[in-house]
Design brief:
Radius of gyration: 34 Å
Number of domains: 1
Helix content: over 70%
Strand content: under 5%
Amino acid sequence: MKLFAVIFFSSLFILGVTMMRTEVNRSGRAIGKLQNEVEIKEARNQYLKLEIARLSGPETIQEIAQDKLHLRRTPPQQVIILED
């Protein structure tokens, strides 16, 4: 009877350790995947920040206004200043 109990509890212990090891491996893979996603998102964020800096420059805004919106700078002789 004692031998059966020792074998039974040893089997339970080994099963528990195996299940815990499997869960640790699964968690490690999930963490690695999430870290990879974070790196991708950070790189994309950096790219978008650079794109904002490039597009918000006055030369770029003027070029877009002229090419896409067909806006032109008003000549000084056409400017009328209204007085109070």
